[in-house]
Amino acid sequence: MLVEAPTFTETLLTFRKQGANCVGVPSDDDGIIPEEFERMLKSRSVRFLYTIPNFQNPSGRTSPLERRKEILAIAAKYDVPIFEDDPYHYLSYDEEAPATYLSLAGDDRRVLHSNSFSKLVAPGMRCGWLVVPDAIIPHLNAFRISAGLTRPAILQLGLFNYLNNANFGERVGFLRDTYRVRRDGMVKAIEKHLKPLGIKTNYPKGGFFLWGEARGVDDMTAFARFAVEKKKVGIIPGSAFYTIDEAKNGHDAFRISFAKVDPETAEEGIKRLAEAFREYGK
User: What is its EC number (predicted)?
Assistant: First the structure.
């Protein structure tokens, strides 16, 4: 199977557990690079493509509409299904997310679409939904049972009652307003403390994550350990989000999450991170 490079580390672990061979497709700030995707389809047998098109974990990137159309056309040309994982779809802070692969595919039933209530209701929910062709529902049910049974019935009933009684639009609006403040606070702190050091970060338009690159740091895992021990601030090394064979590609990269961080804490945390970068290796 093909995945974005980088991609969500827990996805890699989950698919490997089921025996999958995960291969990363090179990506840029707009997501999967179409030419690279097609090149890989020409050279190997691929079961499906896994992608997080909106505010991706870990990179925070969003694939624009035209890029999605290109990827979908290539997938149709080589008859490859797309697994669209879209848990951050509703968490857009500047503009609405582009049309999903599912909606763009229309009657072409090659797209499996998933989303999560854990980002919209409560993190502990660990409950979501899938939109798939009817023909594969029995296979998915069998896989669900073999992979870990199901969510507790009381949790599902509680979620059902909540959704029947809550104003979903108001809930999404509240989440957007809350996370937008945290995103902006983190970006402001980065501009103040990390940018002067030459550290490159992106600007996510939604979701929870920023992606950074620190040229000159050869081992981000070692640096992350140093930052935790010396400055009590945590980042995730970029290598964690690549396949085993491609981990070297993230040697100077890192992920930061702003989901739980208010602007005041972001200011202090990024200040400490900048101090760690200045002191590392001395």
Answer: 2.6.1.39
70: tokens are: 């290109």
The residues, any chain, with a CB within 8 Å of residue 48's CB and separated by 6 or more, are 1, 2, 80, 81, 82, 83, 112
CA gap 204, 61 in Å, rounded: 6
Contact 237, 222 (CB under 8 A): no
CATH no. of 178-279: 3.90.1150.10
As beta bridge partners, residue 237 has: 254
Rounded Cα–Cα distance for residues 256 and 237 (Å): 9
Q: Which two tokens stand for residue 63?
A: 């694939």
Domain ranges in the chain are 2-165, 178-279
Q: Bridge partners of 254?
A: 212, 237
Which pLDDT does position 153 carry in this prediction? 86
Is the CA virtual torsion 54, 59, 64, 68 positive or negative? negative
Q: Which residues fall within 8 angstroms of residue 104, CB to CB, at 6 or more apart?
A: 68, 69, 72
User: Whose structure tokens read 């002191």?
Assistant: 279
Residue 193 backbone dihedrals phi, psi, to 5 degrees: -110, -35
Neighbours of 86 (CB within 10 A): 21
Element (H, E) at 213: strand 209-213
> What are the mean pLDDT values of the chain's consecutive 10-residue runs (282 residues total)?
95 88 95 98 95 98 98 97 97 97 94 95 88 90 74 89 94 97 98 97 97 94 97 96 88 96 98 97 73
What topology is assigned to 2-165 in CATH?
Answer: Aspartate Aminotransferase; domain 2 (3.40.640)
- 19 dihedral zone (left: phi>0; alpha: psi -120 to 50; beta): left
CA nearest to 18, candidates 139, 121, 123: 139
Q: Centre a 10 Å sphere on the Cβ of residue 270 and count the other Cβ atoms it contains.
A: 24
